[in-house]
Design brief:
alpha+beta, 10 strands, 29% helix
């Protein structure tokens, strides 16, 4: 099962994100129910290991904190833009939760990729057809709204989420939720 641990975006922020997606006018908008901030990507995990991950995550205490998304950034490889993201402002509580989740996954035997934690919410994806027209639209949005700041939202837990890959992109299924204690 392809899984990750994340925080689903508060419904109160769906409309401001939809406005940004609409203003972009290109790419494939991430559906509101799929908007999330990834804490740790676990990759393909079999059921016994997934149960061990669940047990470790369930034991983590969650202290509520707020997150603020500010600034749009294109992300991708050296040769093309793959996604448009809203960055999370630096946040010690979010960093601490990421660290606890990563440690829990490792205790459960999951080998995590070594990469810097850059908290963000992906709002649009671009396919191989990202060309000059899409680049112009993206540039216009970044010029007009690149410094956008969304209202803070209160994080009161996180979830273990399964990713289903399909022709229209990924859809997500929450397998378990870990609310504040």
């Amino acid at each position: 099962m392809r899984v990750f641990v994340g925080v689903m975006l508060a419904e109160a922020l769906w409309e401001p994100v939809a406005q940004l997606q609409s203003a972009l006018g290109c790419g494939r908008a991430v559906a509101e129910e799929n908007l999330h901030l990834t804490l740790a990507f676990l990759g393909d995990v079999d059921v016994p290991d997934l149960e061990a991950v669940h047990d470790e995550l369930a034991a983590l205490p969650v202290t509520p904190f707020t997150v603020e998304l500010a600034g749009l950034d294109p992300m991708g490889g050296a040769d093309r833009v793959e996604t448009l993201v809203l960055n999370a402002r630096p946040n010690p509580a979010l960093e601490a939760l990421h660290s606890k989740v990563a440690q829990a996954a490792r205790r459960a035997g999951v080998v995590l990729e070594r990469r810097r934690f850059r908290p963000h919410v992906t709002i649009a994806r671009f396919g191989k057809g990202f060309g000059p027209g899409a680049a112009a639209k993206l540039g216009a949005l970044l010029q007009a709204r690149g410094d956008v700041v969304l209202p803070e939202w209160r994080v009161t837990g996180f979830a273990l989420i399964r990713s289903h890959l399909g022709r229209e992109g990924a859809s997500y299924e929450v397998l378990a939720e870990y609310p504040e204690a």
